[in-house]
Amino acid sequence: MPGTATSAPEVTNIEKLGLWVLVDNRELFLPYETFPWFRDAAVGMILDVKRPHPNHLRWPQLDIDLSIDSIEHPENYPLQARAESDIP
């Protein structure tokens, strides 16, 4: 059985410190400090965002999956991955 239809997310701005994603008429900010995988990604790859479930965003070209809750409340998710460029 197919999943429930959800409204499509949209990357509305990419800036020096992070990116903005419009989800359900609200903009979420993803700072590169917290979400480093986007820092050096190509614009086209960042713009290709999907919403397979109501609380889930996916960037298939970057192989990144994030819950909306982890974007809104990163303090509840203290374990953070590092970008390859951040690994010594």
User: Helix segment count?
Assistant: 2
Shape: globular
Strands of the biggest beta sheet: in what spatial order?
1-2-3
Structural class determined from secondary elements: mainly beta
Overall radius of gyration: 13 Å
Question: What distance lies between the first and last C-alpha atoms, to the nearest angstrom?
Answer: 45 Å
Could you give the count of β-strands? 6
Helix content: 10-25%
Order of helices and strands: EEEHEEEH
Low-confidence stretches: none
Task: Give the averaged pLDDT, no decimals.
Answer: 88
Main sheet summary = 3 strands, antiparallel
Report the portion of residues in β strands: 25-35%
Description:
With 88 residues, this protein is mainly β. 11% of the residues lie in helices and 33% in strands. It has two helices and six strands; from the N terminus they run βββαβββα. Strand 5 and strand 6 form a beta hairpin. The radius of gyration is 13 Å and the shape is globular.
